[in-house]
Specification:
This protein is of the alpha/beta class. The chain has 16 helices and 16 strands. A 7-stranded mixed sheet has the order 8-14-9-10-11-12-13.
Length: 486
């Protein structure tokens, strides 16, 4: 086990300054006096708190759940809602309030909320933003510390938290021939990614989940009126929210299913009971979400793998709902005949002088169709299974045998305390994983409430680790050493 240096500030390096990393930093800073801890958040963006999810400047990109269900503080569910009321954002964006009174602000607003709450700790020096990517993470020869390499220099740390952002979507093999085509958009969230798509352009969106819906809403806001086709293996569109929110319904945790099939049967029976009781299906999935950790823990690894392989796509479209403002755009475009979703598999593609030809086979059919589009947008979802190869910091740890992918292809293997497990099966006491990359251990770790709770738990584990050290008698001498960067 790694031993921390005694009698000085503990140096924590957090790789990633999106919501997961910022929430860990915020909880840590609140738990410690400045002279007891020094936190470096390594984030390429110019500000911390937004990350990939909450940095978008696109007005049509909205949070996917009502503001009253979003909070950095798990024990204070109204934390964000109160801030939002006093921020003036609702007056500047009247479309944020849906007809039932729920608020769905723009995503960048939530990023601003996170950044503003972290700002006092940045101003005090407890937290430092190291602007740039983490390019390599190595363990010191003594095994007692870490070094995180960044373009602006190395950062010495006693504890490292891996809170890296979602990887970019992987490009399907069938679209490889379009990778250099001007009309192919590999990263849909890149700045002005859709700006070059004309109002009458025909568009293929590969994928039909949340990002796909965002692209339709953004294109519509930009004045696009051409044909949009969303294609995915099952053709399932993300569902919306109920007109009236209800309380979570059902009980899956008292006698949790031990097989994926058993869980599916329980869900179907509970949905039938909900219909009989005039309760919407969303309330059933809200209960599933709340009891998710218990359900995941009850499944043996083979059953977890079966759940991910066979049922995940159905879970995703019901669990990760779209804001009603976005759903209304999709419904309107569908009714007008300018938007459709089909179930099909990609077969091949070709760039024919600016016309992007894509061949696909509809589900249940043998005939292969070819259609031409002016633009193709890749929204296949984050390539979580490739995170350890695509992220240089994670890759360096994997190459050193200090982390490994979990067996479900969801992220990084951890123990129940969120510590990384090396390729030799040993837990690394001072290397933590926060956020979605730890969901192979905990199950549901994609929704903001779950990520916020996990960030709080990781911060508490680090605090306990810090408390094992002898009290620092001469903190002032350590504080005088200057910045964390060495």
């Amino acid at each position: 086990m790694n031993a921390l240096p005694p009698a000085r500030r503990v140096r924590v390096a957090i790789v990633g300054g999106g919501f997961s990393g910022s929430a860990v930093a915020w909880h840590l800073a609140q738990m410690h006096r400045r002279e007891r801890i020094s936190i470096s958040v390594i984030e390429p963006r110019s500000f911390v708190g937004g990350g990939l999810a909450y940095s978008s400047e696109e007005p049509s990109h909205r949070v996917n759940v009502p503001a009253v269900r979003m909070s950095m503080a798990p024990d204070d569910p109204q934390h964000f809602a109160r801030w939002l009321t006093g921020s003036g954002e609702l007056e500047r964006d009247t479309d944020a309030i849906w007809k039932n009174g729920d608020a769905y602000p723009r995503r960048r607003v939530f990023g601003r909320y996170v950044a503003e709450h972290l700002a006092p700790h940045l101003g005090s020096g407890t937290v430092r933003h190291v602007e740039g990517p983490a390019t390599r993470v190595t363990r010191d020869a003594s095994g007692a510390g870490w070094t995180v390499q960044t373009p602006s220099g190395p950062i010495a740390a006693d504890i490292v938290v891996l809170a890296a952002t979602h990887p970019q979507p992987g490009i399907p093999t069938a679209l490889d021939s379009l990778s250099e085509a001007p009309g192919f958009i590999a990263d849909p969230y890149a700045a002005s990614a859709l700006a070059g798509i004309g109002p009458e352009a025909s568009v293929l969106i590969v994928g039909s989940g949340l990002t796909s819906a965002d692209m339709v809403a953004e294109l519509d806001r930009r004045g696009h009126r051409g044909r949009i086709l969303a294609l995915s293996r099952r053709g399932l569109r993300s569902r919306g929210h109920p007109d009236v929110r209800g309380e979570p319904f059902g009980d899956f945790a008292s006698a949790p299913a031990t097989t994926a099939l058993g869980l599916l049967k329980n869900i179907r029976a509970t949905l039938a009971a909900a219909r009989a009781a005039n309760v919407n299906w969303q309330s059933v999935f809200d209960q599933l979400r709340l009891q998710g950790p218990v359900l995941w823990a009850a499944l043996a690894p083979p059953e977890r793998a079966r759940l991910v392989r066979q049922l995940r796509v159905f879970w995703d479209v019901h669990r990760f709902r779209i804001a009603p403002q976005v759903a209304s755009v999709l419904d309107r475009r569908y009714a007008a005949g300018t938007f459709d979703t089909i179930a099909a598999r990609l077969v091949a593609s070709n760039d024919e002088d600016g016309s992007l030809a894509v061949s696909f086979q509809r589900r249940g059919q043998t005939r292969i169709e070819t259609a031409r589009f002016d633009a193709v947008i890749n929204t296949t979802g984050p390539a979580h299974g490739q995170a350890l190869q695509l992220n240089p910091a994670l890759r360096s740890l994997a190459e050193a045998g200090l982390i490994k992918a979990d067996q479900y292809g969801l992220g990084i293997e951890t123990d129940l305390d969120s510590r990384a497990v090396g390729q030799d099966g040993r837990t690394l006491t001072t290397l933590f994983v926060a956020g979605p990359l730890a969901r192979g251990t905990f199950g549901e770790l994609m929704g903001l409430p779950e990520v916020a709770r996990h960030a709080q738990t990781v911060a508490a584990e680090i605090a306990k680790l810090r408390e094992t050290l002898p009290p620092a008698e001469a903190v002032g001498a350590d504080a005088a050493q200057g910045p964390v960067m060495s």
